[in-house]
Amino acid sequence: MCDCLVNDTIFFIKKELSTLYEKYEVESFVSLLLEHFAGIDTAHRLMADGMAIDAAQAESIADAVRRLKAYEPIQYILGTVHFYGLTLQVDRRALIPRRETEELVETIIGMCRGASDVLDVGCGSGCIAVSLAKNLSNANVTAIDVSGEAIELAKTNAETNGVNINFYRTNILEEWTDSKTYDLIVSNPPYVTHKEKSDMKPNVLDYEPHGAIFVDDDDPLLYYQVVSEFARTHLDVGGSLFFEINRAYGNDVARILVEMGFGEVEIMKDMAGNDRFVKCRRQNDINSK
Question: Are both 107 and 26 inside the same structural domain?
């Protein structure tokens, strides 16, 4: 591609992608690619008759379109995602933050403004930990993940958003030692079973880290069991535990928490009406159960 009119570039994007994506997705790609690579936002695009972009910008957009045709996620192509008012770097080292997780953060901030010691288990890109550190003014935030690469990405996001977080590489399924206690623990662990792969799109299956997505079909509640056991001894009395969950297992996660003696167990829905979060509080006598 050479110097191109903006309208011709829009036509090119739509022509190349319209058979692969829904119309609303293509429209979103048009806006995102023009703003990211050419600095043309939606308002200016609507007045773009006769406006041109240079050859380098046109080639960058063409390359992005080629990657989109291979179903690479737009977030990885752009290298950033907006999450709860923050700009986060994203790449294949960690799962792309979802809108549902943004809802979880919003719920936690609304209910736990006074939290002082926070633990994010399985931090990935750091979207939860960074958002909580940014919005809970008194919180000392710790974040752990099994992936050293994800930890490095999360550290970058903490630095660029001006928050201090204690990061540790930890495999919670093996040795998990921690002398601290917390008044807020949150976890968005892998919760998609392998049998659900057939329902997933190639932009997820071919690009995002499977270790952050999938859990064994034979033990889909493994991470919830382990984190809940940890919380029995490391969550302060009156402290809160929040999970993001597979919508098919809300009752099962709630049952684990009830059986362990947690109180105020509640399954909450996401904006689509699906069971997506479970919260509870630690009771005084939980360790006697």
Answer: no
